[in-house]
Design brief:
The protein has a single domain, classed as Jelly Rolls. The protein contains five helices and eleven strands; from the N terminus they run E-E-H-E-H-H-E-H-E-E-E-E-E-E-E-H. Strand 6 and strand 7 form a beta hairpin. The relative contact order is 0.23. This is Acireductone dioxygenase.
C-alpha cells in the first residue's frame, strides 16, 4: 500500500502531510497532476520468472493502460535483493530529472519511493505491489529503490527508446530523507 508524505521543498525535516489513506493519496497526487491507482496484483511472480512471464501475467491491465494513455510499449525492471551492483543502480536514479513523456510504473512486487518536486513541494510516494503511478512529462522527480532493493515493476513508454532522462543539476535529492525499506522507513 502506498504512503504519501508532503514536504516544503525548503524543509525536508518536517512532513506537512503523511498518509496511507488511498483516497487521500490519490487526491493529493491528482492535485500535482499525477495519476495514482491501485490495481489488483494477485499474480505471484516466481523469482525465476523473466520479463515475458511478468508481462503475460498482467497482459489485461497493461493493454488497458497502453490504450488509455497512448503508451507504445512496456517492459519490466526487476531488482532481486542482494544484487552486487545495487548501490550503482540506486545512484543512477537519485538525481532530480525530468522526461519528455509521462513516466508510468506499476509495482508488481516489492517497493520503492518516488519523489516529485512540484510547486514548492516535494511529494514522497512509497509504492508497493499493486500501485500504479504515472508522473506527467517534464515533472521534476527522482526515484530511490533503497540500499538493498527488491522490486519488480512494469514500465510504460510512448518513446521507442524507452527511459530517457534530462537531469536538472539541482542537488535537492541530497537534502531529502532516503528510502530504506519496504516499510517506508527514511534516514
Amino acid at each position: 500500500m502506498a504512503r504519501l508524505s508532503v514536504y516544503s521543498d525548503t524543509d525536508p525535516t518536517v512532513a506537512e502531510l503523511s498518509s496511507a489513506d488511498p483516497a487521500l493519496v490519490t487526491a493529493h497526487l491528482a492535485l500535482a497532476g499525477v495519476l495514482f491507482e491501485r490495481w489488483p496484483a494477485p499474480q505471484a511472480i516466481p523469482d525465476a520468472a523473466d520479463a515475458h512471464a511478468v508481462l503475460e501475467a498482467y497482459a489485461g491491465p497493461v493493454a488497458v493502460l497502453k490504450e488509455a494513455r497512448g503508451f507504445q510499449s512496456a517492459d519490466v525492471v526487476r531488482m532481486p535483493r542482494g544484487q552486487p551492483d545495487a548501490a550503482v543502480r540506486r545512484a543512477a536514479f537519485l538525481a532530480e530529472h525530468t522526461h519528455d513523456e509521462d513516466e508510468a510504473r506499476f509495482f508488481v512486487q516489492g517497493s520503492g519511493a518516488f519523489y516529485l518536486h512540484v510547486d514548492g513541494k516535494v511529494f514522497r510516494i512509497v509504492c508497493g505491489a499493486g500501485d500504479l503511478l504515472s508522473i506527467p512529462a517534464r515533472t521534476k522527480h527522482w526515484f530511490d529503490m533503497g540500499p538493498d532493493p527488491e522490486f519488480t515493476a512494469i514500465r510504460f513508454f510512448t518513446r521507442p527508446d524507452g527511459w530517457v532522462a534530462s537531469f536538472t543539476g539541482d542537488v535537492i535529492a541530497d537534502r531529502f530523507p532516503k528510502f530504506e525499506s519496504e516499510t517506508g522507513n527514511v534516514s
